[in-house]
Specification:
The protein folds into 4 domains: about 5-75, no CATH class; about 85-310, Rossmann fold; about 320-410, no CATH class; about 415-505, Tetratricopeptide repeat domain (Serine Threonine Protein Phosphatase 5, Tetratricopeptide repeat), CATH 1.25.40. The chain is globular and about 65 Å long. It is an alpha/beta fold. The longest helix is centred in the N-terminal third of the chain and has 20 residues, at about 85-105. The protein has a 9-stranded mixed sheet with strand order 6-2-1-7-8-10-9-12-11. A 3-stranded antiparallel sheet has the order 3-5-4. Helix 6 links the parallel strand 1 (about 110-115) and strand 2. Helix content is about 45%, strand content about 10%.
Length: about 500
Amino acid sequence: MGDNLSSDLLVQASIRISALMGLHFPEVRRADLERILCEAAPMFGFTNVIAFVEWLISFPLQKDHIERLADFFTVGETYFFREKESFRALEDHILPPLIRTRASDRRHLRIWSAGCCTGEEPYSIAIMLTRMIVDWKDWNITILATDISASSLKKALSGRYAEWSFRNAPTWLKECFFRKTEDGYYEILPSIKQMVVFEQLNLAGDAYPSPTNNIYAMDLIFCRNVLMYFTPEHAKKAVLGFYQTLVDNGLLIINPSESIKLSGSPFVYVSFHGTTFYRKPAKGEIVEEGAKGKQGIGERIAVRHTGENVLKTSHLPAVNSVPSGLRNDSGRVLKGKRGRAKEQRTPYEEALFLLEQRRYAEAEEKMSAWTEHELRNPKALTLLARTCANQGKLDDAEMWCEKAINADKCCAINYYLLATIVMEKYRFNEATTLLKRALYLDPRFALAHFVLANLLMRCGKRKISEKHLNNAFDIVSTRSHNEVVPESEGITAGRLMEIISTMKRA
């Protein structure tokens, strides 16, 4: 293992690690990279680090390889109620008005801890909510915690922590929410443990927002001490994903040192006594440079004038690839230079091209010039529904989707799309009915089986939920592992099989 890596090999390894996990190793950190590679090589069966790196940069890696690498490259250092000022701002200023509003509505909260490490952060969030909401057991509270490291998630799932995880924590924490085990550890109470759902997720590679992994319509996203390790390109992509995943006025919580990663983003910042959060503006809100307003929560200061460049994406799953139901009549997908020249495209094809580029406002503008003939085309109506959904115009999206169904009652995709829209409105019974209709029309619609399984599990119908999970697994298992599953926002068949396997084990 004493072989020294050449500068060229280190550069290639850095590029490869960046592509796999989004992690950034500039020249000043090349010594760290070499040390980590030397530590990782034996775990992959290599006695020679040069041979290991040559394998790493030359061969396609499976997901389990990436997960094992992640255990070496990620930092597992955290503790309960870390960065007290952030939690104090949440408890004193941000959550109280949100809880009051939701208490008179549907009693729901959705929070995502992205890069949860060994679980101290999401458990801290759960504990805080139980202290703030007296009848929290009667609420529909989702606390989703994700991390790329399998070993970190394993510890998080155990809920067992040593004294070191409680440094700087309030004195009441261990007394009220943990029990001491015979071997000297502290185990979190089952009632708190059950509030958090842990999932494996690669922020640099997996799709979000997406109903496939329950990442959508979040009120709060915690992503602290993660973006600082990403390349600028991967950080920008992650921030856009967070923006699309949040509901209007939803907040992104990052480490103050990571604020540079949000430069140029459509977020506005909200400040409380030196603690800064990043808010997704409401639809139609005008954000001026340096302006202060009374809208939203607390003091609102815009980081830039976004004007017409504001990304009007919604908390619905974004369209990352053009679904088969929206391809043009020849079956082609219009992409850049491979598509027909712009002046030769029909108005429908031009709007489809803009949708694929995520230029939703431009796509909608193009659709405003559609003729009556195009507005009677079921595929055009579906395109309208998707464009509205991706801008957060759920009522309009629902209307156009219903029109698409009326124009073509045999298209399973439209029933599935409408189901995802009404899910955002918490009309779960209606979504269940729509998904069943989609499956009646297309029994091999894998994503419809998968989403229906999740809905049924939420309703306590475990047996039939497992049936639909098995159906989804059997269908995607016939596909190539790298083939994208229709309607899945870019998720491959192999990845969906892994998600289903994890759910079945849980």
